[in-house]
Amino acid sequence: MGSFTSSENQHLERQLGNDFPPGEQLIGFENPNNICYSNVIIQTLFYVRPFRKAVLEYQRQGSDNLLYLTKMLFELIVNSKDKTGVVSTKKMMNYVKTKNRIFDGNYHQDCHEFYMWYLNELEEILNGKIKNNPQKNWLQKLFQGNQITRTICQTCKSKSEREETFYNLSIDLDPNCSLSYCIKKLSQEEQLRGQDQFFCDNCKGKQDATKTLLLSELPQSLVIHLKRFKYDERMGSMVKVATKIPFPFELRVQTNNSDEVKTKYYELTSIIIHLGQGIMYGHYICLIKINNLWFKFDDQSIQLYPPHDIYCVYGRNNAINQGCAYMLIYNEQ
């Protein structure tokens, strides 16, 4: 898969002593060509233990693919005799570049876009030639939820529903509002009027309607994407939204598509942070919770991170250069 350097991050062994996370390795990733966007995703997923376990159990059929190359990388880490070090993802990323030209180059990319492409690629590998397989594979059971878009015609009151899957919840940011509030706002009723009228099959024409997004099934690992970038017409480009969004260490989320409400309780285990002003430039780092200790992964460098400082990445209005949480990973308790 690539070279392994054991001398890096040895300070953690001295610093932690007997508190070093048992059975874990703290391994940084090299960043030769502005690939921090992929590093934070793979580093985060490695420490989602059900994901790691399933990847390591994968049996390749045929030629190399992204899942097998991920397995090779994970094996290099877990089979290391060293507790700390740095590994290269060059072989995997060379393959990525052949599959998706967006990531073929030495330019900064969006880590959320990479996450979505990466999981969709793994899903395609696991499903093989079976399209729309009704049986969920392990990846879907872990990260995939279901949502229903319900539209009600205001003329005839007929109801239309469209069910879709999601690998993350993309959240609009309201200033000084909590993450829990922003998630609930996803299901706020939207009025479809004027140019946005809904074509009603029953009325056979466009009508005023209401549209509501409902969560029908929640995943084991809930990935939340905070919409930190928006198009500014005056600037003619995407700009960063540094809005402060407090998020909890423990999160309760409920389904809301039927009378039978199901509740899941999640624990925050990873925070991906964007540093800089724009979506196509800047830097990504991640904070990961491992055995009740928080660590900052900055490509090849790993440091202990005090949990009481996590509020610093909530964001701050008019502080676009500040590091802001961009993606959050909550695992079911």
N-to-C SSE string, H for helix and E for strand:
EHEHHHEHHHEEEHEEEEEEEEEEEEE
Structural classification? alpha+beta
* Termini Cα gap: 33 Å
Count of runs of 4 or more consecutive helical residues: 8
Content of β-strand:
25-35%
Kindly state the number of beta strands.
Answer: 19
Rg is 21 Å
- Average of the residue pLDDT scores: 91
Helix content: 10-25%
Shape: globular
Largest sheet: 8 strands, mixed
Low-confidence stretches: none
Which helices and strands, and how do they pair?
Blueprint: E1 4-5, H1 11-16, E2 26-29, H2 36-46, H3 49-57, H4 66-78, E3 84-87, H5 90-99, H6 111-127, H7 138-143, E4 145-153, E5 159-166, E6 169-171, H8 179-185, E7 190-192, E8 198-200, E9 205-207, E10 209-217, E11 221-226, E12 229-232, E13 237-240, E14 250-254, E15 263-275, E16 283-290, E17 293-298, E18 301-304, E19 324-332
Parallel strand pairs: 2-3, 6-11
Antiparallel strand pairs: 1-3, 4-5, 4-10, 7-10, 8-9, 11-19, 12-13, 14-15, 15-16, 15-19, 16-17, 17-18
Helix pairs in contact: 2-6, 3-4, 4-5
